[in-house]
Automatic annotation (TrEMBL):
Lineage start: Bacteria, Bacillati, Bacillota, Bacilli, Bacillales
Protein encoded by which gene: hisD
Class of this enzyme: oxidoreductase
Catalytic-site annotation from UniProt: E321, H322
Protein name: Histidinol dehydrogenase
Transmembrane intervals: none
Function: Catalyzes the sequential NAD-dependent oxidations of L-histidinol to L-histidinaldehyde and then to L-histidine.
Source species: Lentibacillus halophilus
Length: 431
């Protein structure tokens, strides 16, 4: 990891990488989207054979495959799934919203009707690791919101199988529909439908650059959760931080992939030195040290500030996916943080808790988008409709102001729609 001052760090190009146009990726995904739209299931079978190296006889995971996956799980893993599910349900239940109504004046009812999205697609990556935790994180808030049908898509291995941990998590979360489709073709199938896959109204879940770019292209035809970039962690540490803990947490994010961004911000050069030494010592003992080393070399930074206040300001400028405050009195200093996907307080709240069992969602804004967006939650799986009811007298009270605004905009038909109800003999006979 490279050491620098806060002013030197500010001179670097932005860490944001998720929103830039990528012509090479587009040249791959746009023909795939078109192919799936035109050829449906045939395109999915053909692309799966070409890109994943397996010829499938069916797109769906069978009940027998679910049973085999569940029976192969250890008791400790099943217990871990149940613990994570229960904690996620408890936390996300606090996000539930209800329809509401108000009567600000006689004869007037206003309100908001909350309705769950009917069909949702969830993408679960394959590749370098399996992600049963992502199954729970994406499914549980959708189920709590009342989504009627949830379809998981995930790439098969070269034998045509889905990772059994993913299937066990799908069952634990209460989802029966899992499709053996990955990549851009899976996103296109969810967005536009095929003979076998019903189109959805929203697509959520992480993926590689091709998945992320396809989500961006189908957005507008369907809703999406976010355009996710590489994983990030920013640790703000002072002299009260345990260097071994901080190093372990930075390494835990670096092992995701070579593009992961581990950042340390501290007002103390001695703390910077101690944590850097721990990183070097611990890295050599880790299974994914080649990936970790590349992540640290490419994207790792140790930023030394003049004061703790400057360290917190630097964290806000970064707007990280994960922010750990390993400082004296983190609760008091939390008030200074305005841009972060998730905030972990103290020496004993590692980011790994948030990835798995704490309860809050680990699907978080990346690439600086925490400046304007939020973690995935129940609120992402509902839509809201405004409710308006006026009786004749209430309309009469509001008519002049409404017509004045309409006429100011030159929309005289709007004004007439009010006037016609005011005119004697034209008012409706019932409300």
């Amino acid at each position: 990891m490279k050491k620098m001052t806060a002013s030197e760090f500010r001179q670097l190009p932005s860490i944001s990488s998720g929103q830039n146009h990528n012509q090479n990726v587009d040249e791959t995904v746009l023909p795939i989207i078109s192919d799936v739209q035109k050829n449906g299931d045939d395109a999915l079978f053909r692309l799966t054979e070409k890109l994943d190296g397996v010829s499938l006889s069916t797109l769906y995971v069978t009940e027998e495959e679910f049973q085999q996956a569940e029976s192969s799980m250890s008791d400790s893993f099943q217990t871990a799934l149940k613990t994570a599910r229960q904690n996620l349900e408890t936390f996300h239940a606090g996000q539930l919203e209800k329809s509401w109504f108000m009567n600000p004046h006689n004869g007037m009812t206003l309100g908001q009707k909350v309705t769950p999205i009917k069909r949702v697609g969830v993408y679960i990556p394959g590749g370098k690791a399996s992600y049963p935790s992502s199954v729970l994180m994406n499914i549980i808030p959708a189920k709590l919101a009342g989504v009627e049908k949830i379809t998981i898509t995930t790439p098969p291995d070269d034998q045509g199988n889905i990772n059994p941990h993913v299937l066990a998590a799908a069952k634990e979360a209460g989802v029966d529909t899992v499709c053996k489709v990955g990549g851009a073709q899976a996103i296109a199938a969810l967005a536009y439908g095929t003979e076998s896959i019903e189109p959805v109204s929203k697509i959520v879940g992480p993926g590689n650059a091709y998945v992320a770019r396809t989500k961006k292209w189908v957005y507008g035809d369907v809703d999406i959760d976010m355009i996710a970039g590489p994983s990030e962690i920013c640790i703000v540490a002072d002299e009260t931080a345990n260097p071994a803990f901080a190093a372990a947490d930075l390494l835990s994010q670096a092992e995701h992939d070579e593009q992961a961004k581990p950042l340390l911000v501290t007002p103390d050069w001695d703390v910077a030195d101690a944590i850097q030494k721990e990183i070097s010592n611990q890295m050599e003992k880790l299974d994914r040290k080649a990936i970790i080393r590349e992540s640290l070399n490419q994207n790792g930074h140790i930023i030394v500030t003049e004061t703790l206040a400057e360290a917190l300001d630097t964290a806000n400028r970064i707007a990280p996916e994960h922010l750990q405050l390993m400082i004296r009195d983190p609760f008091a200093n939390m008030a200074s943080i305005v841009n972060a996907g998730a905030i972990f307080l103290g020496n004993y709240s590692p980011e790994a808790l948030g990835d798995y069992t704490a309860g809050p969602n680990h699907t978080l804004p990346t690439s600086g988008t925490a400046m304007f967006s939020s973690p995935l939650g129940v609120y992402d799986f509902v839509k809201k409709s405004s409710i308006i009811h006026y009786d004749k007298n209430a309309l009469s009270q509001a008519s002049q102001a409404t017509m004045s605004l309409a006429e100011a905009e030159g929309l005289t038909a709007h004004a007439r729609a009010i006037q016609i109800r005011k005119d004697e003999g034209n008012a409706p006979t019932n409300d």
